[in-house]
Amino acid sequence: MTPTIRSVAKLAGVSPATVSLALRNDPRISSKVRQRVQDIAAKEGYKPNPIVSKLISQVRASKTTNYKSTLALVNTAEHLKDVEERTVRCWINSSIERASEQGYTVDQFVLAKEPLRPARLMTILDSRGIEGLIITGPFQDNIIDSKYDLLWQRYAAVVLGERPFKPSLSCVINDQYNTVRQAMMQVRRLGYRKPALCVHPYVDHILESRLSGGFLVEQRQLPKRGMMVPYEYSSAGKDHFYKWFKQHQPDVIITLHTEIKDWLEELGVQAPRDIGLVHLDHEPSLTAWAGMNQNHENVGKAAVDMLVGKLNRNELHLPPFPKCVTIMSEWTPGPSVREQVKEACASGA
């Protein structure tokens, strides 16, 4: 006979409703009872009906409940400026929105504002019945401080916006490598033949060189005279930039730094008349730019989806094989670039 929730409930000596909640890892059921029910269900070979599960999820999503489980969003950044950065705020807001849609509230722990020892943080998490963590950085050399190692053995955790080398946690990030490749494809389509990448080396470093990697791969599609190494934007400022620009004379610059537009204008170089400009993290306020929309909202939402899935599967530990979900970017047209091919044809006529 195929095992059912009722048969599992009879063996466990609890109600079918308790079994249903326990199999979803609901914190309203004690961890001891949850584990016992899950062990019995596994021994009996119980498998949830995917069609029924889908219908139940739809019903839950369509109604408001008084009880909400809680997730924790732990920002480990050392400096408040990293916490308040636009991209991070977008991730967090969309995570909270998505969690609410799935029946969760989110408690935030900003360690730059209120430092907590890991033991104290764990005490708070346990007292609130929290088993799922969303972690944000940035992290030094993509490594999360080892003082937090105990957390990964007791809670389900997903890293938001960055892929850590250590520990091996699952994560959700923008596909930065493909973001630059798409930008390069777009400027080539417009007829630009000497593109330059201008990003801070630290940013490229924490992104595992995915920005420079995407740029260099796409350079294979260019004539040799159009190839150049990425320009390392730094605190050296505009004088250093001017020297580089006059030496290399790119026809389009792909960057994360809006001040480059102002620096070029001081030289009398206007976009799109004299040069193309593309921003790799485009947002609605950048009306003078074309660029890549990194879909930060979907990064935050996907992190919650991944975490809820881990909780439903009772994966409260370091994963043996961490997963990394990447979110694609989209091209946003703008007035900082224009078609080049027609102009080249006209000048050669």
TrEMBL record:
InterPro entries: HTH_LacI (IPR000843), Lambda_DNA-bd_dom_sf (IPR010982), Peripla_BP_I (IPR028082). Keywords: DNA-binding, Transcription, Transcription regulation. The keyword rRNA-binding does not apply. One of its GO terms (molecular function) is DNA-binding transcription factor activity. Residues 3-57 form the HTH lacI-type domain. It comes from the Bacteria. It holds the Pfam family LacI. This is LacI family transcriptional regulator. It comes from Cerasicoccus arenae. The lineage of its organism: Bacteria, Pseudomonadati, Verrucomicrobiota, Opitutia, Puniceicoccales.
